[in-house]
């Protein structure tokens, strides 16, 4: 019988109180990891950690990823409660959709700060710890929007495209230190947010997917598991599209 893929590993996941981040935490714990659930809503992070199994396998930490100090504190908590971080998943994100004509400077800055600066904070600080401890893996959450650009998302598309460039540059910097950096680009994934779309918008998006269905959060989590584990040991600087074939 094979051992769990992440046995003995400590993973830090941002934006993990719900949605894709929570699904990744579930999948990692099922494969032997101990997880720090980071979220800007500290109460929600604590509740999510409790649902995931409590103190033995998960701890919730309030973290605003735009603050390097808060990200550093979250990583220090991981080391104190479990061990130094082996897997970092930069998943936290927000949307502030509007057409370019109507989008405010504040809406643009908020999305860039959370997605792009937040991912840079997590990548930079986690890589610094990993290089001193024999290596590790970093997974950054991009989006199909960062590949194709979506109307009403000049801020989000720019941030998600930036995450791809950031991941590739970082991967080149730290590969010789045993740190791998990869990115995931999800397409339409079923969630409370996407299911609240107007029916005509949902139908339009569905018509663009060759597989004929939306993705499920666990289907993103399984790809994150692959990138976190030794199954992807010779992969760095890659971008994996998980889209059902949409805009391939």
Main sheet strand line-up = 3-2-1-4-5-6-7
Largest β-sheet summary = 7 strands, parallel
**Cα-atom radius of gyration:** 17 Å
CA-to-CA gap between the ends?
A: 37 Å
**Count of alpha/pi helices:** 9
What shape does the CA trace take? globular
CATH architecture: 3-Layer(aba) Sandwich
Overall number of structural domains = 1
| Sequence stretches where pLDDT stays below 50 over 5 or more residues | none
- Chain-averaged pLDDT: 97
- According to DSSP, the number of beta strands is 7
CATH topology: Rossmann fold
The SSE string, one letter per element, is: EHEHEHEHEHHEHHHE
CATH superfamily: NAD(P)-binding Rossmann-like Domain
CATH class: Alpha Beta
In terms of DSSP E residues, the strand content is 5-15%
Short description:
The protein has nine helices and seven strands; from the N terminus they run βαβαβαβαβααβαααβ.
Describe this structure in words.
This protein has 248 residues and is an alpha/beta fold. It has a single domain, classed as 3-Layer(aba) Sandwich (Rossmann fold). The chain has 9 helices and 7 strands; from the N terminus they run E-H-E-H-E-H-E-H-E-H-H-E-H-H-H-E. A 7-stranded parallel beta sheet has the order 3-2-1-4-5-6-7, sandwiched between helices. Helix 1 packs across helix 9 and helix 3 packs parallel to helix 4. The chain is globular, with a radius of gyration of 17 Å. The model has no long low-confidence stretch (mean pLDDT 97).
